[in-house]
Amino acid sequence: MRDKKQRDEPKIEALLEYANSIIATSREPFLVLDKGLRIVYANQAFYTAFKVAEKNTIGRLLSDLGNRQWDIPELLLLLEGILPKKKIVKNYEVRHKFEQIGERIMALNARQLRLPKQVAAIITAGVRKEAGEDLILLSIEDITEHKRVQAEEQRYRTLVENLPQKVFLKDRNSVYISCNENYAKDLKIKPVEIAGKTDYDFFPTYLAEKYRADDMRIMKSGKTESIEEEYMVMKDFLRGSQKMYINTVKAPVLDKAGNVTGLFGLFWDITGRKKAEEALNISERKIRAIFDQTFQFIGMMTVDGTLIEANRTAMQFAGISESDCLGKPFWDTPWWTHSEEMQDKLRDAVKRAVDGETVFFEATHLDANKVIHYIDFSLKPIKNQDGNVIFLIPEGRDITERKKNEEELKKYRTLFECARDGIILMDLDTGKFTMCNKAICDMLQYTNEEIKHLSVNDIHPEKDLPQVMEAFEKSARGESYLSENVPIRRKNGSIFYADIAASRIALSDKKYLMGSFRDITDRKNRPV
User: Fold this and answer.
1) N or C: which end of the chain has fewer CB within 10 A?
2) CA nearest to 396, candidates 485, 470, 467, 310
3) pTM as predicted
4) Beta sheet of 166-171, edge-to-edge order
5) If the chain, 528 residues long, is cut into consecutive pieces of 10 residues, what is the mean pLDDT of each piece?
6) In this structure, what are the phi and psi dihedrals at residue 42, rounded to the nearest 5 degrees?
7) Which residue spans within 115-173 are E strands per DSSP?
8) Contact between residue 226 and residue 249 where contact means Cβ atoms under 8 Å apart
9) Spatial contact of 515 and 488, defined as CB atoms under 8 Å apart
């Protein structure tokens, strides 16, 4: 019997060495404990992860390990119940602050390890005098980073879902990956239902094509863009869709290598603002321009350039008090010190104003938030009865918004005039065309002035008028309407075909019908 035991021991030790090699190379920390929770084995991953040495580990009670950093009551209680109750512990989370490595969250898996007495004796040799057959195998997974990422993801998800804006994410092919609840409501779907769909599933073709072109341009350039554009909100079967205007911010999504993997979009409703802008007629714009000439920043200075008075509006604009500006050379006050060029320009203006000249120029000032504003500035001389200049009056008006609007107006006018589709605006009261772009002039072969004397009856064959008028009446009632393959008559009487998207708009309390014409003659005549 003793001979057999001696013959078996090398085999057992070889098997244990094999198993030991597997556990030792594992990246996950492992411990083998006896029933008294004394450590009989630990792999290298355990020593590395918890910064302890083998000589200070094997044979010690788990609770005494590493200056008692494993003296975790809930863990010890859990392990004490494994052998007598034959429990199996799966993914039990423990959060603990360790002396050497700081706070960690660990997922523990533990179970009874029943071994033959010979095997147990070899494993526990040098640790226990009596070899028990029951041991505890404890695996420890550090899930601190996983939990941090999970919590961060949840925070971002909560943030996105509670944003008042509509948010979406697309892949490299402009296919939706996800969206928030606010966007899904507009599309009459649930957020999870958007994955795999495109803009063609929700919007008219002309809008979907525009959205996709924007997406591709932005992903190709790698630059974020802010776009004001048309948008359709789905209502229901009877009411169809509602046309709106939105401000969309689209940004490319990059991977760690800097490669574009998709597109992030965020947008909000600006329909009210757009309607307000459209409601301004030419006369109202003139009144606004006159009103804008009223100077809102006013001060008084001596002929040597010392500022002696400044109104509250000017000081509040820059976030300063009287002590910050009064009694100082005007060019050394906070409105001007951001730019040496502006200071030199002001010094020159003072010299000219002292000689009796009223000086005008465009300046820049920093507001209270250190943001640059454009100012229409003037410096006027005040003379006494003898004609001598005794004071100088600086005045300024913030024209930043006007400059932005001028740039916006220029941009939209350029888009209108350069649009490939023909566009006509018709007065619903008179039935006459009032405005058009170059593309429709080229299509119809009329000049801009000639088109203003035409109506719907003049650009369609007589036999097609009933169908055209039916679509016209729907659009006049406020329904956005797309008519396809509509015959159009040119000035010379020849016919071409177009898809017409028509919608009613209001400008300065007047109602108009806007039609967008896309020439499809080549497509229609193309052999099938």
Assistant:
1) C
2) 310
3) 0.34
4) 176-179, 166-171, 260-269, 240-254, 225-236
5) 49 47 66 84 84 83 80 80 73 78 82 62 50 73 77 62 79 92 87 92 89 94 88 55 82 90 87 73 48 61 92 86 93 94 94 94 91 92 92 90 78 80 88 90 92 90 85 75 86 91 81 88 74
6) -145, 140
7) 134-142, 166-171
8) yes
9) no
Q: Extract the tokens encoding 279.
A: 């409601």
Nearest CA-CA partner of 97 in 153, 39, 30, 50: 50
Cα separation of 528 and 507, whole Å? 43
CA distance 433 to 425: 6
Give the span between the Cα atoms of 339 and 28, in whole angstroms: 61
Inter-CA distances, 385 with 174, 300, 388, 392, 396, Å: 74, 19, 7, 15, 27
Dist. CA 393–CA 391, nearest whole Å: 7
SS3 110: strand
Which residues 6+ apart lie within 8 Å of 139 measured at CB? 28, 29, 30, 108, 109, 110
What is the separation, in whole angstroms, between the first and last Cα of the chain?
A: 94
- Residue written as token pair 């423990």: 94
Q: What's at 407, amino acid-wise?
A: E
- Distance separating alpha carbons of residues 49 and 42, to the nearest angstrom: 11
Sign of the torsion angle spanned by Cα atoms 265, 266, 272, 276: negative
* Interatomic CA distance for residues 204 and 199, integer angstroms: 9
The 10 Å Cβ neighbour count of residue 13 is 14
**Is the Cβ–Cβ distance between 464 and 443 less than 8 Å?**
no
> For residues 69 and 98, is the Cβ–Cβ distance under 8 A?
yes
